[in-house]
Write a structure and sequence with these properties.
The chain is an alpha/beta fold. The protein has 8 helices and 7 strands; from the N terminus they run E-H-E-H-E-H-E-H-E-H-E-H-H-E-H. The chain has helices spanning 18-29, 42-53, 69-82, 106-130, 154-174, 192-199, 218-228, 256-259; strands at 9-12, 33-38, 59-63, 88-91, 136-143, 179-186, 240-243. The protein has a 7-stranded parallel β-sheet with strand order 3-2-1-4-5-6-7, sandwiched between helices. Strand 5 (136-143), helix 5 (154-174) and strand 6 (179-186) form a beta-alpha-beta unit. Helix 1 crosses helix 7 (218-228), helix 3 runs parallel beside helix 4 (106-130) and helix 4 (106-130) packs parallel to helix 5 (154-174). The radius of gyration is 18 Å and the shape is globular. Bound molecules: NADP nicotinamide-adenine-dinucleotide phosphate. NADP nicotinamide-adenine-dinucleotide phosphate (NAP) binds next to helix 1, strand 2, strand 5 and helix 6.
Length: 260
C-alpha cells in the first residue's frame, strides 16, 4: 500500500531547520512532495531537500522572506508555474524580537507580526486558490505564549494569538472548499531558536522533563501535524492542539526527573 500522502504537494515555510525540517521530513516519509521554503540559511534548506529526496519523493527549495508580501507572492508564483496545485500548507516560519512590552517599538512589532501572522493570512489566501477543487490542509505552528505570559515574549505571543484566531476564521470560511485548517501549539521544543533565547538570557532555562517524562523534540510536533494532514483528522476544524507533554495543565507539578 502506498504511503497516505502519496501524490500530495506540501509547502512547509521555514523548513530548512528546526521544527519545520522535522515536519517536512515527516510529510515526505508519508509520501508527499515538499516545497522547502527558507529565508537566510540556503545550505540547511538544501540539506533538508536532499534528505527528502532520499525518501523517494520530490523536493524543491524556494527562498522567500514570508514577511515580505512581494517575495511571498513570488514563491507562490513559482509553485503555481511549476506544479499548478497545492494540497498542504504548513505555516511554520517564525521570527521575533524578545523584549518587555514597554520596550516594543513599531519596527519590532511590524517585523514579528509580518512574519508570524500576516504571512499566514497571505499564504492561506494564495494556497486556497491552488487547493481549489481538490481540498487541502492548512496547519500553523503556534506556541503556549499565545495564551500564557512568557518572559520577553510579548510580541511573539501576541502574533501567535493572532495566528490562532486566524485559524478559526479560516477554518470556517474554507470548510465549504474541503480545506481543513488547524494549529499545533507547542511549549519549549529543543531547537536552535530555544537555545538562542536561553543563551541571550531572553528566557530562563525551562528545559526540563515534562509530566510526560522528557523534553519535547521537533518530531513530537511533526507527528501531530502529520495526523492533522491525514483524512482521519477530517472533522477537526479551527482547533489549536497543544503539544506540551502535559506542562500547561500541571504548571505547579515539578517532574520527578528535575528533582534529582
Ligand atoms: N522552539 C520552540 O521552543 C518552539 C516552541 C513553540 C513553537 N515554536 C514554533 O515553531 C516554529 C518553528 O520554530 P523553530 O524553533 O524550529 O525555529 P528555528 O529553529 O529558529 O527555525 C526558524 C525557521 O523559520 C525560518 N524563517 C525565519 N524567518 C523567516 C522568514 N521571514 N521567511 C521564511 N522563513 C523564515 C528559518 O529559515 P532560515 O534559517 O532560512 O532563515 C528557519 O527555518 C515557529 O513557528 C515557532 O514559533 C517553537
Amino acid at each position: 500500500m502506498s504511503p497516505p500522502l502519496t501524490g500530495k504537494l506540501a509547502l512547509v515555510t521555514g523548513s530548512g531547520r528546526g521544527i519545520g525540517r522535522a515536519i517536512a521530513l515527516k510529510l515526505a516519509a508519508q509520501g508527499a512532495d515538499i516545497i522547502v521554503n527558507f529565508f537566510r540559511h540556503r545550505e540547511a534548506a538544501e540539506k533538508t531537500a536532499k534528505d527528502i529526496e532520499a525518501l523517494g519523493v520530490k523536493a524543491q527549495v524556494v527562498r522567500a522572506n514570508v514577511g515580505n508580501p512581494a517575495k511571498l507572492d513570488e514563491m507562490f508564483d513559482t509553485i503555481s508555474n511549476n506544479f499548478g496545485y497545492l494540497d498542504i500548507l504548513i505555516n511554520n516560519a517564525a521570527s521575533g524580537v524578545g523584549r518587555p512590552v514597554m520596550d516594543v517599538d513599531v519596527k519590532a512589532w511590524d517585523w514579528t507580526m509580518d512574519i508570524n501572522a500576516k504571512a499566514a493570512l497571505l499564504c492561506a489566501q494564495r494556497a486556497a486558490k491552488l487547493m481549489e477543487g481538490r481540498g487541502g490542509k492548512i496547519i500553523s505552528i503556534s506556541s503556549l505564549g499565545s495564551s500564557f505570559v512568557l518572559p520577553t515574549y510579548a510580541i511573539v505571543g501576541t502574533s501567535k494569538a493572532a495566528l490562532e484566531a486566524l485559524t478559526r476564521y479560516l477554518a470556517i470560511e474554507l470548510a465549504p472548499k474541503g480545506i481543513c485548517v488547524n494549529t499545533v501549539a507547542a511549549s519549549a521544543v529543543e531547537t536552535e531558536a530555544l537555545k538562542f533565547y536561553i543563551k541571550e538570557q531572553l528566557m530562563p532555562d525551562t528545559r526540563q522533563a515534562t509530566p510526560a517524562g522528557r523534553m519535547i523534540i521537533p518530531e513530537d510536533v511533526a507527528n501531530v501535524v502529520a495526523f492533522l494532514c491525514s483524512e482521519e483528522a477530517f472533522m477537526i476544524r479551527g482547533q489549536t492542539i497543544i503539544v506540551d507533554g502535559g506542562t500547561s495543565v500541571a504548571p505547579f507539578v515539578i517532574p520527578k526527573e528535575s528533582q534529582q
